[in-house]
Amino acid sequence: MAELTTIARPYAKAAFVFAKEQGALDKWEKMLGLAAAVAGDASMRAYLDQPELDDAAKVSAFAEVCGDELDESGRNFIAQLAHNKRLPLLPVILELFHALLAAEQQFTDVELVSAFEMDDAVAEKLVAALKKRLGTDVNVTTSVDQSLIGGVLVRAGDTVIDGSVRGRLNRLAEQLNS
């Protein structure tokens, strides 16, 4: 994975710098999101992997699938990736672009996983505490995992805060077994 990230980083930076200069960071994130989804689709991958397809045909297929969602600069970016045989890197490029965007706009993506659906008031308290702890704005996504039994699991980048009952039981079992 580190090698893919190393190869994708210059493309993500170039797209980010261009989008920032154009004042179109959100638009580029949407375009890259769509392109990454198209590149990740199994049937599209099978089509693009045909050895008899040239770069122009690959770009044309991408443009046809994406439609008006890709502007001319987006199609040019896809053409450059196709020319350099880097279309499969689009999901990694999107991830790196999003990280650059988060650093620029000073926000952190946070996932809250709870055993049951969370009240809005509880979620707002957690968001406020996370903003204070992380020192940035947070974009929150929530999900439910009943195997947690109770409590909340918080994921913010590399940071994981396990406040779930399942996590506490696992830690207790480890202490008893050691």
From TrEMBL:
Kindly report the protein's main subcellular placement as a broad class.
membrane
UniProt GO MF annotations: proton-transporting ATP synthase activity, rotational mechanism
Its membrane topology is listed as: Peripheral membrane protein
Q: Which family does it belong to?
A: Belongs to the ATPase delta chain family.
Q: Which InterPro entries match?
A: ATP_synth_OSCP/delta_N_sf, ATPase_OSCP/d_CS, ATPase_OSCP/dsu
Name of the protein: ATP synthase subunit delta
Name its species.
Answer: Alcanivorax profundi
PANTHER family xrefs: ATP SYNTHASE DELTA CHAIN
Q: Which UniProt keywords apply?
A: ATP synthesis, Cell membrane, CF(1), Hydrogen ion transport, Ion transport, Membrane, Transport
- Give the subcellular location: Cell membrane; Membrane
* One cellular component term from this protein's GO annotations in UniProt: plasma membrane
Q: Which HAMAP family match?
A: ATP_synth_delta_bact
